[in-house]
Amino acid sequence: MARRTSKKKPPDLPPLDPIPARVDPCLATLVGEPPKRPDWAFEVKWDGYRLAVHIEPGRVRILTRGGYDWTERFPTIVDVARRLAVKTAIFDGEAVVLDDKGRSDFGMLQRALGRLPSAVEARAIVFYAFDLIYLNGRDLRRLPLRERRRLLEPLVAGREGAVRLSEEVQADGDEFFRVACEHGLEGIIAKHAEKPYRSGRGEWWQKITCKRRDSFVIVGFEPSTVPDHLGRLLLAARKNDDLVYVGGCGTGWSHDLSRELHNVLASIVTKNPAVSLRRKNAVFTEPMLVAEVEYRAWTDDGKLRHASFKGIRELADDSTIFALR
Asked: How many CA atoms lie within 13 A of 13 on its CB side?
């Protein structure tokens, strides 16, 4: 008897999602204390550059938070990414350099990237992956965080090279925050395990910092009494479409870094200040650079209190300049 063949049409498979050229990152909202509900997970807050690593057929791309292509700056991350067991993927994470105590150090990262003279090598840069946005033809942004982490962890967990997993900590948020601050970390991140990946700033990702830290535009400097050294940075924040002076920063750099910063700023001096300010010894610069500054609070007249320099960025690299309301 001839075998009867079925004329039933096989079910249609859902179409594959094309890999996005770029995804605006999910950003954490600054809050005063960790959430206390059980559906939140915690991670260390890394002090580095936020990056998206795109793995595509025949190439790897590394994009900054602002969408700039920095692939050539991270050759060791590219090399490891090429060998991951994926066809296509987008990893969300942070590029850092660790100090001798295992803490991320933004200044060391800048030196490894060649922004300032240093013995820190580029191969010291580590990418900590904390989310997976796309994998093998599927856009994962609709999935809750716990599902995205379930897919992420087998790909990078246990690695000790240039690509590693940013570990989740299942713990009491207050206790984890206390320990993080005691160990000199910048703070912690809290993420709601049931929420999808949403671009922009929202309450589903929260950051709790041991001290306040923000980015400000460098609009000038005051020279030190030591020739060719930096005395004080002059800083500005955004207000609508303008820059507004918010005070200065005179600590946070070594003797050698003071000279290096002075030389960098002296190369972009201008006679047209970006802010309305009269100071006897001020030297104004083009608003091309951004200072990462740690501070305790704001004064009543809108100036930074106890500001300390933590690092420098190019303005084009950074879309997080502090904005006054």
From this structure: 5
Instruction: Give every CB contact of residue 241 below 8 A, 6+ residues apart in sequence.
Output: none
CA distance 155 to 315: 34
Provide CB contacts within 8 A for 319, sequence distance 6+.
Answer: 65, 66
| Residue-range definition of the domain harbouring residue 233 | 212-317
Q: Is residue 10 part of a domain?
A: no
Sequence-separated (6 or more) residues with CB below 8 Å from residue 310 = 47, 106, 107, 213, 252, 291, 292, 293, 294
C-alpha distances (whole Å) from 22 to each of 10, 91, 145, 162 are 35, 11, 19, 22
Segments in the chain forming alpha helices (H): 75-82, 106-112, 145-156, 173-182, 255-266
Q: Tell me, yes or no, whether 57 and 187 share the same domain.
A: yes
Q: Which of 7, 9, 45, 101 is catalytic?
A: 45
Query: 142, exposed or middle or buried, with CB in 10 Å at 0-12, 13-18, 19+?
Result: exposed
- Summarised one tens digit per residue, pLDDT across range 56-69 is 999 999 999 999 99
Task: Say yes or no: 186 and 261 in one domain.
Answer: no
DSSP, residue by residue, 50-78 = EEEEEEETTEEEEEETTS-B-GGG-HHHH
Sign (positive or negative) of CA dihedral 236, 237, 240, 241: positive
What's the CA gap between 236 and 311, in Å, rounded? Answer: 15
pTM across the whole model: 0.71
Catalytic: 9?
A: no
**Of 238, 293, 254, 257, nearest to 47 (Cα)?**
293
Residues 74-106: tens digit of each pLDDT: 999 999 999 999 999 999 999 999 988 888 988
